[in-house]
Amino acid sequence: MNSVQQNSETNTNKHYLVVLGAAESGIGAAILAKRKGYTVFVSDGSTIKPHYKKELIDNNIEFEEGTHTEAKILAANEVVKSPGIPEKNAMVKKIREKGIGIISEIELAYRFKGDSKIIAITGSNGKSTCTSLIYHICKTAGLDCALVGNIGYSFAKQIAEEPKEIYVAEISSFQLDDIQHFRADIGILLNITEDHLDRYDYKFENYINSKFNLIRNKQSTDYFIYCKDDEVTMQYLSNHILPTNSMPFSMNQELQNGAWIIGDQMMIKALDEKFEMSIYDFALKGKHNQYNTMAAGIASVILNIRKEKIREAVTTFKNLEHRMEHVADVRGIEFINDSKATNVNSTWYALESLEKPTILILGGVDKGNDYTILEELVKTKVKAIVCLGIDNTKIHAAFGAMVPVIIDTDSAALAVEESFKLAAKGDAVLLSPACASFDLFKNYEDRGTQFKEAVKAL
């Protein structure tokens, strides 16, 4: 029995659904619910963007912005909460106190997916790239598929407007927090590092448990793909029963099933299939992307995609915008936009993949960063650090003794200008901030776009 039925006595309409938050996931949930016969009310405490407001009006969905009408919200049988809204939100607390069920958009989407398959990818780092690569492989193979979830297009809206046979979904911990029955046919957990701890009472174990919600409802016919080299993942699995149909991937050892790299060869062994490919043929470079490619390769074999199609897709994939994106070469200096690196581990992966002397642009809103994991790479690869943020004290303290030049800037244009002065022919200028962006920018996309515009203006 779902929570709509359980809470029916609180409202004469058994399908009165309130959606909190009117961004991509909230709008998608509202549209799907409306088309499935729910009475829907959308409430956003901030201003709703014009294009989202138009979608609500076009679909005849009642909404409010800039406020929360408590009586209307607390009359709901069920609430869909946008992933950006934390549990400590005052309205969320009132909903919980009244015993009204709260679900995520992906849970609502799951109810109406029909017989379609879900490939769900989560992890602290690399999930957007891995999700996009799997989607690219599926498209190359001619499968009827959609790219959905945290990567930018609402899962619920896709089901409402153009259902597919396969959904390749990037799933965040926030989305997994409010699932009930959601499960993936193929679930991929890339890695777990400390991130978003402000949302998890600063307890790493709470964040870890959230990630493992990915397999909470796993059935015997589902597959679980995980990184055998990730210490946090393996520590958790050592205290839990490993699910059936588990497929690990590793760079450190040959495996009975799954994927591994020995020397320059990737090997995949799954479902009595064997697949081999040189890492030099991967379109994606860097150690972290070898992990992404192994995970994507296993999923593709499980989907019975032909080897030649997997090989073709892996060699033709184009990297995502704002993720190790080559912007331009200016007087022999390469400019790279990795604005999506909003935590220290992402920046580690970025630096690890570079072979050139580097001017590193760091900074923004610090989320409790521990910069010690970057020390060895900074010592060996970084010529100078250009800080891009309002408060750069922590960066100066962490690297002041090991980098000869650290300067402060407060705009993308100034950061690019100073980096250009510090760089020489053959160097790289890498924007990989290791921090959130909202001190100086709207989001990481805005930061990356301003960086690219500044480079092109040189």
From TrEMBL:
InterPro entries in the cross-refs: Mur-like_cat_sf, Mur_ligase_C, Mur_ligase_C_dom_sf, Mur_ligase_cen, MurD
EC code: 6.3.2.9
Residues noted as binding ATP in the record, renumbered to the chain: G123, S124, N125, G126, K127, S128, T129
Pathway(s) where this gene product acts: Cell wall biogenesis; peptidoglycan biosynthesis
Catalytic activity field: UDP-N-acetyl-alpha-D-muramoyl-L-alanine + D-glutamate + ATP = UDP-N-acetyl-alpha-D-muramoyl-L-alanyl-D-glutamate + ADP + phosphate + H(+)
Stored Pfam families: Mur_ligase_C, Mur_ligase_M, MurD-like_N
The UniProt record lists the keyword Transmembrane: no
Cell compartment(s), UniProt: Cytoplasm
GO biological process: cell division; cell wall organization; peptidoglycan biosynthetic process; regulation of cell shape
Keyword Cytoplasm listed: yes
Enzyme class: ligase
Gene3D superfamilies in the cross-refs: Mur ligase, C-terminal domain (3.90.190.20), Mur-like, catalytic domain (3.40.1190.10), NAD(P)-binding Rossmann-like Domain (3.40.50.720)
Domain Mur ligase central stretches: 121-298
Recorded GO MF terms: ATP binding; UDP-N-acetylmuramoylalanine-D-glutamate ligase activity
Mur ligase C-terminal domain boundaries: 322-435
Cellular component, GO, one term: cytoplasm
UniProt keyword list: ATP-binding, Cell cycle, Cell division, Cell shape, Cell wall biogenesis/degradation, Cytoplasm, Ligase, Nucleotide-binding, Peptidoglycan synthesis
Family per record: Belongs to the MurCDEF family.
Entry-linked NCBIfam families: murD
PANTHER family found in the cross-reference section: UDP-N-ACETYLMURAMOYLALANINE--D-GLUTAMATE LIGASE
Task performed by this protein: Cell wall formation. Catalyzes the addition of glutamate to the nucleotide precursor UDP-N-acetylmuramoyl-L-alanine (UMA).
Protein name: UDP-N-acetylmuramoylalanine--D-glutamate ligase
Organism: Limnovirga soli
Gene that specifies this protein: murD
